[in-house]
Amino acid sequence: DDLLHVSDLHKAYTAPGAAFRQEAVVKGVSFSIAEGETVGLVGASGAGKSTIGRMIAGLEQPDSGTIKVMGQDILALKGKARRQALRPIQMIFQDPYESLSPRMTIEQLVCEPLVIQRLYSGDKRARRELVREALAEVSLSPDRYMDRYPHELSGGERQRVGLARAFIVRPRLIVADEPTSMLDPSLRLDLLDVMKRLRQRHGLSYLFITHDIALTRHFCDRMLVLEQGVIVESGSTDAVIDDP
Ligand code: ADP
Ligand code: ADP
Fold this sequence. Notes:
Strand order of the largest sheet: 6-7-8-3-9-10
Shape: globular
Domain ABC transporter: 4-244
Bound molecules: adenosine-5'-diphosphate
InterPro entries: AAA+_ATPase (IPR003593), ABC_transp_ATP-bind (IPR050319), ABC_transporter-like_ATP-bd (IPR003439), ABC_transporter-like_CS (IPR017871), P-loop_NTPase (IPR027417)
Number of strands: 10
Mean pLDDT: 93
Strand content: 15-25%
Organism: Paenibacillus naphthalenovorans
Oligomer: single chain
Keywords: ATP-binding, Nucleotide-binding, Transport
Largest sheet: 6 strands, mixed
Radius of gyration: 18 Å
Low-confidence stretches: none
Order of helices and strands: EEEHEEHEHHHHHEHEHEEH
Protein name: Peptide ABC transporter ATP-binding protein
C-alpha cells in the first residue's frame, strides 16, 4: 500500500454568514505518495495548495473524496480512531512563530505534541530524553536550546523547532507548507538539508508545498502542479521543470 493515497478530493469554503458555499478551491485532486518519497506541490498563491495540505493533515474537512493513510480511510473514521490513523502525518507551517506559544520553553514546545496526543506518559527524565533526541535530529544542540524561548531564536531555528515538534511524534509523512518562504535565501537550503537528513535517516516522506519551483529541484523526487484547484501536470521534478 501507498503511504498516502488521495482520490477525487473536493473542497469549497463557506464564507461566515453566507447562505451558499463559494466556488470550490479544490476540484477533484488525486495523487499518491509512497514510503520515502518527496513530492512537491507547486502552484501560484491561491491555487489551493494549503487547503490540500490541511485536509491531508486532518485540519480541514473535505466535501468529498477519499484520503487513505497507510491503507486506512481517514474520512470514514471518527474521534480517537481518526486521530490515531492520522498520526503518521504531521505538518509544519510557513511561520512557526504562530504555532509556538511564546511563554513555553523550547523543551516544553517540543514535548507538547507528546503531551497533547497522549503518546508518552512516562517519567520526566525519559520525556526529556525524547526532546533532546528530537532537537539533535534537527541540528539544534539540546544543551543550548532547551531552556530558551521562541523569541530568542532566529527564524531558521524556530522552523527547526517546528520540525522537531513534528518529528517527535515519529511520523511517516511531513506536510511542509511553505516552510522556507519566510527565511533568508541562505537559510532556505540549510532547512532543506535538515529535512533531507531526516529523510535519509528515517525514511520520512514529504509533501512539500511551495510557490517556488526552483526549490523543488533541490528537494523533490516528483512534482504536482496545481492550478485553480486542479492538478494540471505531474511527473519527475526534472521532467516537469524542463518541460517548456
Ligand atoms: P494556496 O496555498 O495555493 O495559496 P489556499 O489553499 O491557501 O491556496 O487557498 C485557496 C483559496 O481558498 C484562496 O482563494 C483562498 O482565499 C481561499 N481560502 C483559503 N482558506 C480559506 C478559509 N479558511 N475560508 C475561506 N476561504 C479560504
Ligand atoms: P520543571 O518543573 O522541571 O521545570 P516542567 O514542569 O517545566 O519541568 O516540565 C516537565 C516536562 O513536561 C518537560 O519535559 C516539559 O517539556 C513538559 N511540559 C511541561 N509543560 C508542558 C506543556 N504545557 N505542554 C507540553 N509539555 C509540557
